[in-house]
């Protein structure tokens, strides 16, 4: 990965990074994330944020004990949470003199060339206006996406769509291990993946946290999409968002998936 060649970057942040275990927003971490992204923007990078958390925030906002199991329940919770989430982002980014825009997508928005071009045009125009697009799945109208979708895949599709140079997945784990670190104390972090192999896929565990939907399996799927599209991808721990600075300084703990070709 050549940092000097990076111009456009997509950063995906998961629910477990944005919220506490009770579903309430971790405002301290979100503010630090916003400051880091604003600084990257000031350095001259095009920045797109793909943010999970709408349902997790909605659960906390409504004081529910758990995420609803019905589609209509999930849609309602997402509607409440998305409003709260964007309000927080808007206020924090404004403190650092940055303008944000909300983009909600479903799989159908990317199914035809015309729709994809319309979405691409919107991204390009927003970045020409120096705005930071904040993307999430449109859970309030989607059905299949809520049950089977995840923002790891969405972030990779966005990176491919806008021809991003780097995709960063901020998660609650340091990166890809040779086996599940939650089960094996001798698991070793894989720092660089040159090629996706069956051995690597086999070592991934699929379960996400109680507040999120994704796991390592979805991250590997995202890596395949991104790298095939000519975009490097990094998995790193989002507990301290300042790891973004470490990444752009070439010194970080995580896993780099090198782009193909």
Low-confidence stretches: 206-214
Give the helix level as a range of percent: 40-55%
Rg, rounded, reads 17 Å
Trace the largest sheet across and list its strands.
3-4-2-1-5-7-8-6
Structure description:
This protein has helices at 15-18, 27-42, 54-61, 71-95, 113-128, 144-148, 151-161, 198-202, 216-228, 243-248; strands spanning 8-13, 46-51, 100-105, 132-137, 166-171, 192-193, 232-237, 254-257. It is an alpha/beta fold and 261 residues long. The chain is globular, with a radius of gyration of 17 Å. Residues 206-214 have low confidence and may be disordered.
Question: What are its keywords?
Answer:
alpha/beta, 42% helix, 10 helices
Give the SSE map.
Layout: E1 8-13, H1 15-18, H2 27-42, E2 46-51, H3 54-61, H4 71-95, E3 100-105, H5 113-128, E4 132-137, H6 144-148, H7 151-161, E5 166-171, E6 192-193, H8 198-202, H9 216-228, E7 232-237, H10 243-248, E8 254-257
Summarize this, please?
With 261 residues, this protein is an alpha/beta fold. It has helices spanning 15-18, 27-42, 54-61, 71-95, 113-128, 144-148, 151-161, 198-202, 216-228, 243-248; strands at 8-13, 46-51, 100-105, 132-137, 166-171, 192-193, 232-237, 254-257. Helix 5 (113-128) links the parallel strand 3 (100-105) and strand 4 (132-137).
């Amino acid at each position: 990965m050549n940092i000097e060649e990076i111009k456009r970057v997509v950063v995906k942040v998961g629910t477990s990074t944005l919220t506490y275990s009770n579903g309430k927003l971790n405002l301290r971490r979100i503010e630090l994330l916003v400051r880091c992204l604003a600084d990257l923007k000031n350095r001259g990078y095009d920045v797109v944020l793909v943010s999970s958390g709408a349902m997790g925030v909605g659960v906390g906002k409504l004081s529910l004990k758990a995420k609803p199991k019905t589609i209509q329940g999930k849609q309602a919770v997402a509607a409440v949470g998305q409003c709260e989430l964007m309000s927080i982002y808007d206020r924090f980014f404004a403190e650092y003199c940055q303008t944000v825009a909300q983009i909600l997508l479903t799989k159908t928005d990317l199914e035809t060339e015309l729709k994809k071009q319309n979405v691409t045009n919107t991204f390009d125009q927003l970045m020409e206006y120096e705005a930071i697009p904040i993307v999430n799945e449109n859970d309030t109208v989607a059905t299949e996406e809520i049950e089977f979708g995840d923002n790891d895949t969405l972030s990779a599709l966005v990176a491919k769509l806008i021809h991003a140079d780097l995709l960063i997945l901020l998660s609650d784990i340091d990166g890809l291990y040779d086996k599940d670190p939650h089960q094996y104390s001798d698991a070793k972090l894989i720092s660089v993946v040159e090629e996706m192999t069956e051995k690597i896929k086999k070592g991934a565990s699929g379960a996400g946290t109680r507040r999120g939907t994704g796991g390592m399996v979805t991250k590997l799927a995202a890596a395949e999409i991104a790298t095939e599209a000519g975009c490097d991808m990094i998995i790193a721990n989002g507990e301290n968002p300042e790891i973004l600075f470490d990444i752009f300084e070439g010194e970080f703990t995580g896993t780099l998936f090198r782009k193909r070709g």
